[in-house]
Amino acid sequence: MKIQNSVVFITGANRGLGPAFAEEAVKRGARKVYAGVRNPTDISPPGVVQVRLDVTDPASVAEAAKQCGDTTLLVNNAGIARLTNSTLEPAMIDDMRDIFETNVYGTMRVSQAFAPVLARNGGGAIINMLSDAVWFARPMLAAYSASKSAVWSFTNALRIELRGQKTTVLGLHVSFMDTDMTKGLEIKKTSPQQVAEAALLGIEAGQEEVLVDDFTREVKRSLATAAAIYLNPPEIG
Ligand SMILES: NC(=O)c1ccc[n+]([C@@H]2O[C@H](COP(=O)([O-])OP(=O)(O)OC[C@H]3O[C@@H](n4cnc5c(N)ncnc54)[C@H](OP(=O)(O)O)[C@@H]3O)[C@@H](O)[C@H]2O)c1
What is the CATH number of the domain that holds 80? Predict the structure, then answer.
């Protein structure tokens, strides 16, 4: 699909990757961009309409889908991460529940609410924001990685089902990105602008998977080899 004249709905659009998606969509000629945010403000960039949205709240998701019935491209971007010291910490189970509520059930909820909207508007597309962490886990990010693996799996099933209504489902994978989520981590990071641009180029090219950076491509390539990165992921820092 073309971004020109599309109507884009982005979850978690107030900071990090979300605003970069909004800016890139406007730049590429989107007719309207809905910024799904938990706390709307009075100020929106030109071409952007704020919509109240908490992906953990079914009523808020249903209301947003009703309000934004002209959406043709949904970007499931909202997500949370939490660092843990050890996979053996009992608190990790609660962390995992919290993270799944946003990253997995949030993505599922928004996809379910917007799929009929996209169908009514001719099919369109969904971008699900995934990660290189769908294919490996570090103890400090175990709950987050598990959530991204789960949402990758959901994305793969959703893609097949929504082909029937001509909706393209694109899984977007990147390693570390320069946002609040990685603040304080001394590592190589991709800019959110680069990620948004790669994703929208992928949508225009009809792609169903975009791997943004070299490390993510290497992680996927290594999966079937004896040197699979999930067996010995590199240390951070
Ligand atoms: N940063 C990375 O290294 C990296 C790498 C790979 C993938 N990702 C993924 O990229 C996506 C964007 O992350 P980011 O780096 O931009 O993170 P970020 O800077 O922490 O921003 C997260 C965004 O999600 C929103 N959000 C969180 N919970 C929400 C909820 N319940 N309902 C609605 N919005 C909610 C936040 O809104 P509030 O301001 O209200 O909290 C914020 O706008 C996430 O899915 C993340 O997992 C990130």
Answer: 3.40.50.720
